[in-house]
Amino acid sequence: MSKQITGMSYDERSEEERQYLLKKAGQILYEVFEEVKPMVKPGAKLLDICNTAENLIYEKGARPSFPCNVSVNYMAAHYTSPYNDETIIPEASIVKLDMGAHIDGFISDKADTFCFAKELETVKEASYAGWKAGMELMKPELETSMIGVATEDKIKEYNYKPIRELAGHLLDRYRLHGSKSLPNIRIPYAKANSVVEEKEAYAFEVFATTGGGSVHEVKPKTYIYMLMPRRVPVRSRDSKAIRNFAFNEYSTLPFTDRWLMQNDSFNPGRVRLTINEMKRHGGLYEYSVLAEEKDAMVSQYEESFIVTEAKYEITTLPPFDYKMPESLKEKEENQEEKQEEEEKDKTE
Fold it and tell me: Out of 177, 200, 238, 286, which one is annotated catalytic?
């Protein structure tokens, strides 16, 4: 059987297959991260980093689960290079690299911070230490509010603050942000569903800041979108083609208009008009760039993991000890045979 999800159909997966694909997506993301890291340095164009990261994910057999984010200094999240972006990494800066990959909707998400001034190293250390403190508690049936307590206390030991609006998140199939979150701060109460459960997948991301501990939307800077469930009307034939392509390619996952503008099938100007038209009709959710106060410096650390019977297994860090299920091997063999038959039919 197959299910339908907003323009994208997918096969049901066993738990063994699900965990394999989560781990495979995690390994691919780790490998891409390692290849891209040398590019992150003063003078580098953000656009080159984004394009390279996203292309490598495709080359390794996965797809981006959201556009590569490169956020500099007080920018905390959701900055991906727009089309023809000329922005470069400045000297004495702090840079957050955040990227995701998925295979058949099973998502991995990973982020780290790069410092280009010695005095910023402790900001970087604080987000990692906060992440580690939260993860030390991780186990089935843990109330997520406890993670926030440990994370906030650790970051404050460095005399910095966590960012209250940003948190880790449940990774559902084809949904980057599931119904549960892993807070960076104390929260007054735990919701009824805010308990970590065995077999769930999460991305735990932690932010530390020299600022006030809160982010605001930077208007009108929005480069990342997510399609709303209904297909809103657009006027021209070209706009309909762009809208339909987006539904088929991205479904419920975030995307950037840069991807559409870089597609040889579409005119960049028409893409811009289509995006604006869809926004007016309520057809897009906008991920505005999120930033701290302008003189603040922000760091970030994130890994993805699966909750196990005892504690957890990180999917985006080595060692990568997993095997392809026999059921997936059979599916791949059948697919290869089908492709060979199709190629044979074409040549006859």
Answer: 177
169 annotated active-site: yes
Strands 2-5 and 161-162: unpaired
Copy the structure tokens of residue 272.
């811009």
Nearest Cα to Cα of residue 45 among 72, 66, 67, 65? 72
Closest CA to 103 of 24, 175, 35: 24
- For residue 302, indicate whether it is catalytic: yes
Catalytic residue among 109, 112, 152, 292: 109
Give the global pTM: 0.93
For the question of residue 98 being annotated catalytic, the response is yes
* pLDDT tens per residue, range 250-291: 999 999 999 999 999 999 999 999 999 999 999 999 999 999
d(CA 138, CA 259): 36
Q: How confident is the model at residue 32 (pLDDT cuts 50, 70, 90)?
A: very high
Catalytic site includes residue 286: no
- Residue 134 CA to residue 196 CA, distance in Å, equals 12
CATH architecture of 220-286: Orthogonal Bundle (1.10)
Which residues does 284 contact at the CB level (< 8 Å), separation at least 6? 225, 226, 227, 228, 275, 278
Domain boundaries, given as residue ranges, for the chain: 11-213+293-330, 220-286
Superfamily of chain region 11-213+293-330: Creatinase/methionine aminopeptidase superfamily (3.90.230.10)
